[in-house]
């Protein structure tokens, strides 16, 4: 499992994949990332201490992800991140949170005392597909509702059951309402949600210009940020 990398394109930053407690929701039908969770704080601390030791502060920007939300990181790991921020002169932090924590984001801003770009895995702005098929437990109705709390949506494309029109709308909303977005091309895993190869081929042709968009990062493979397995 690769847990540290440097991202040099578009938004240059260091990125770390940390361990956390289990996702509070943990029932998304497309997600098996929760297998990286742990209930043992000592194990979490040991792994996260080693991973964070690689941070150099080269870009002044750090992205911290885990297989849940930033709110599932133990306090001991949050303290480690804060130490790195102070020692390495980190000026900006990327964090990710589930919709259920939308009213608590200010807690992280006050704790870390630097600007935070908050990501959220919306997967799609189509409420029916997101809730009925993906079981996301993020029952917002409009992108404006998301933009009220979060800076950057993570959108998934290429799942069976999605449509071209759905993807077009998702990308249009990301461009219109947010300063940053991540587009993830779906990779098959152990869940029941499967790739639609024809839809992905269409997306690659229709939206290849996104690679030149300075505000949107496209992950053609789920490990394109250099972390994960």
From TrEMBL:
Domain of life: Bacteria
GO molecular function, one term: catalytic activity
InterPro entries associated with the record: Elp3/MiaA/NifB-like_rSAM, rSAM_sf
Residue span(s) of domain Elp3/MiaA/NifB-like radical SAM core: 13-205
Protein's name according to its UniProt entry: Radical SAM enzyme, TIGR01210 family
Organism: Garciella nitratireducens DSM 15102
Lineage of producing organism: Bacteria, Bacillati, Bacillota, Clostridia, Eubacteriales
